[in-house]
Amino acid sequence: MEVLRRWLIGLAVALIGLGSGAQAQQTADELAEAEAFALGYQAYITGAVYARSQILMEYDINPNAPLNAPLNAFNIYPELATPDTAIDFTPNNDTVYGLAWLDLRQGPVLMTIPATPDRYWVVQATDWALNTLDYVGSRVGSKPGTYAYVPPGWTGSLPAGVTRIESSTTGVFLQARVVVKPDSKPDLGRAVAMLKTFRLEPLAPPATYLTVAPGAPLVRTQMDNPLWQSLDFYPLLNRAWAFGGVREQDGEVAQLASSLGIGPGLTFDPAKLSAAQLRGLERAAKTGFERTWQYALTYGERRNGWRFASNLGFYGNNRLLASTIGMRGYGANTAVEAMYLPAYVDGAGEPLNGAYSYRIRFPAGQIPPANAFWSVTMYSLPNNRLIANPINRYAISDRTAGVKFERDGSLILRIQHDRPKGETASNWLPSPAGRFWVILRMYGPKPDVLRGEYAPPPVERVEERSANPAP
Q: Cα separation of 153 and 120, whole Å?
């Protein structure tokens, strides 16, 4: 990246020297715009995931948010996710959530887990760039005890018996998930009560942390917020890098655009930049945003219309994938914990649309192979929200009450806007009138999934149209 920056600057100087008068000025402006675009684009592709972490954190700690909690405390969601749930990152409809944003700038934060019931649960910790740091939960056989999330470079001592978990950034995101039977209020209550026993506290209790004033407006985190495609992105990025820190391997890229006021500890001031530089940076934001969207549709291997990727949850130097997941889903598990198979198209490669009816037929013996549970969940475009429908069903899973198998042992899921006729309504996953996408989740995927030997059947479009077709 530094080589690119020096090359652009050198080229600009050489070409400016060759021109004269108005022509030289035009060349200088063109080169200034090109350099700003190149630096801004690299900052966007590297930093969008950091910016997404920051804006979600700023929303969740705001006292005006529908559900909120301060830094270093769990925010417990009392119900399974619905279209009205204040989770703006592709929530599942399988587990209740306990979300926490940690600030490690003043030292470690301790998490204490008591004895847990015999059910699936997990606490996933990710850094500010969404790389999974570690798991505490049922799959890994975690015992009751205290776990310390430690900032990079910290050399202090922890209390005896505390398990140390190193972070690569000073900002950390925790997702606690506890599986629920979707149609059982008593089971939901038990799951929420379990989450409420999880405790967080700083190692140094006198420490004070960032707060949001009670009257502060709520930030808009959704993808249709113009911020993501404008100059307003860069102040958010600077806040993200200042609060959450920068992974060591991202440090050079984070410093690339410092001459433009973009980087850790810097202030982005458009008044100090030329019109050409501002044009380049705005174009970089628009291009970076579009690039993450296009990559979301194409990353991984497509099999039967489903997208397979076993490298989610830990991205290494694949900054484009990290920012794509940050912008389009946020917080994916690693493959051993859960596999996520999105489908944006049907088996023929056509975009999914509520103008049509679809089915997924799992043959006998080919039900999604998961040790914990599986589900197929419906989402809107472009905001990736659950979709309101007459029966309040947002997913079909191995725990959905009333689902019926065929006589041959196969399972047929019906995906369409209008209620199917007859007994097939029991297997109905309602779709919106327009575009949508679905995710097949497998928690605790079995070895054949991890080896790439399992592919679900396609989402098949059937001939009849929905009664309310949409373009």
A: 33
User: What residues form DSSP beta bridges with 341?
Assistant: 440
The predicted-structure confidence for 323-366, as pLDDT tens digits, reads as follows 999 998 888 999 999 999 999 999 999 999 999 999 999 999 99
Neighbours of 276 (CB within 10 A): 19
Contact 324, 357 (CB under 8 A): no
Contact predicate 364/149, CB 8 Å: no
Residue corresponding to tokens 């990559």: 295
Higher model confidence: residue 15 or residue 258?
Answer: 258
CA distance 102 to 175: 11
Token pair of 143, please?
């015992």
Q: Is the dihedral of CA 431, 437, 441, 446 positive or negative?
A: positive
Can you give the residue ranges of every domain in the chain? 30-58+226-295, 75-202, 301-465
Residue 53, classed as helix, strand or coil, is helix
Q: Can you read off the two tokens belonging to residue 273? A: 């930049």
Compute how many other C-beta atoms are within 10 angstroms of the C-beta atom of residue 144.
10
**Burial class of residue 268, CB neighbours in 10 A (0-12, 13-18, 19+):** buried
Give me the CATH code for the 75-202 domain, please: 2.60.40.1610
Host H or E run for residue 194: helix 185-195
pTM across the whole model: 0.88
Nearest-CA neighbor of 53 among 88, 85, 79? 88
Are residues 346 and 352 in contact, defined by beta-carbon separation less than 8 angstroms? yes
Residue 7 pLDDT > 70: no
Quick one: how far is CA 159 from the chain centroid? 33
Q: What is the pLDDT of residues 373-431, one digit of tens each?
A: 999 999 998 778 899 999 999 999 999 999 999 999 999 999 999 999 887 789 999 99
How large is the C-alpha radius of gyration of the chain?
24
Q: What is the DSSP letter of 260?
A: G
Whole-number average pLDDT of the chain = 91
Please name the CATH architecture into which domain 30-58+226-295 falls.
Orthogonal Bundle (1.10)
Chain-centre distance for alpha carbon 140: 23
Give yes or no for a contact between 294 and 45, defined as CB atoms under 8 angstroms apart: no
Position of tokens 């575009």? 435
Q: Within 10 Å of residue 380's Cβ, how many Cβ atoms? A: 17
Question: By C-alpha distance, which of 436, 428, 441 is closest to 359?
Answer: 428
Domain covering 301-465: architecture: Sandwich (2.60)
280-306 tens-digit pLDDT: 999 999 999 999 999 988 888 899 999
